[in-house]
Amino acid sequence: MSSFWSIWITVISLFVIAGCFILLRLVSKNNTGVKEGESMGHSFDGIEELNNPLPKWWSYMFYVTIVFGVIYLILYPGLGNFQGVLKWSSSNQSIGTEQGIKADSKAAVLAAKENGHYVQYDQEVKKADDTYGPIFAAYLATPLEELVKNKDALNVGKRLFVQNCAQCHGSDARGGIGFPNLTDGAWLYGGDLASIKTSIMSGRNGFMPPKGGLPIEDSELAGLTEYLYQISGHEVNAELATQGQGSFMKGCFACHGMDGKGNKFMGAPNLTDNAWLYGGSRKSIEQSIKFGRSGAMPAWKDVLGEEKVHVITAYVYSLSNQ
């Protein structure tokens, strides 16, 4: 915070407290010229205003709040850049990527300890680690093949998924345009337990260049789209699809395979299962071919740790393997 804004906030905070005190003192004195208990000369609907002071308990309550406010601003941050006598802060996290936040936060935790700062977020994290750490350690020691049968672990994995993964994949894990559906069994990089865990731990980066980087003309796009529509189980224009097959053989098979069933080692989609990441209409397929597609899933190893990823893996696997 700049010096200007620090001074601005400090002045306003102290002015409000001082103003409350002055106002309370003014209304506590009888400056009306009318004796206490006598009429002020105002009445409405049979109700007459009398010159009565504030109840003592009410005045004392206001004084207590003013004193509390002063003590609070001395102990805790609130006056601009002043950190408070207790050196308390709510969090040490910065704004940025998840990975950047995690790295910055770890450094800030160490710095806070060295400088004697009390960071509430750090204390809550430590308490949570002390409480739930042994539970997650036990889950990590359990093979995934057994963990997927543990209902308690799957419930924990579901909550972790909703907290961290639902932003992209949806709370029901059915994804959306550009975000994989995790319940349909169509896996770009493999749907076995080990592959799913690797995907979550290390992240994935998918990229298809425009027209696959192949010498495919715009005039061929309609035929190629029709061919892909055909191998995914739709009724099509057979003649146009045959022309598109020739375009496919120019090199699309290098990633997607001769039969179009993809390559999980490369993350190349299976084009025959009718599970389209960016939409399965003719228009969407043609746009994918013409302009290419790219997507990235961040690595969660350093954000959540292997213990939590282990549990999320079991939950995600259970969604398509009941």
From TrEMBL:
Binds 2 heme C groups per subunit. NCBIfam families: ccoP. C-type cytochrome. Part of the cbb3-type cytochrome c oxidase complex. This is Cbb3-type cytochrome c oxidase subunit. Its cofactor is heme c. Belongs to the CcoP / FixP family. Pathway: Energy metabolism; oxidative phosphorylation. One of its GO terms (molecular function) is heme binding. It is found in: Cell inner membrane. Gene3D superfamilies: 6.10.280.130, Cytochrome c-like domain. Its main location: membrane. SUPFAM superfamilies: Cytochrome c (SSF46626). One of its GO terms (biological process) is proton transmembrane transport. Component of the cbb3-type cytochrome c oxidase. Heme c 1 binds at C165, C168, H169, M297. Residues 152-232, 239-320 form the Cytochrome c domain. InterPro entries: CcoP_N, CcoP_N_sf, Cyt_c-like_dom, Cyt_c-like_dom_sf, Cyt_C_IC, Cyt_c_oxidase_cbb3_su3, Cytochrome_c_Oxidase_Subunit. Pfam families: Cytochrome_CBB3, FixP_N.
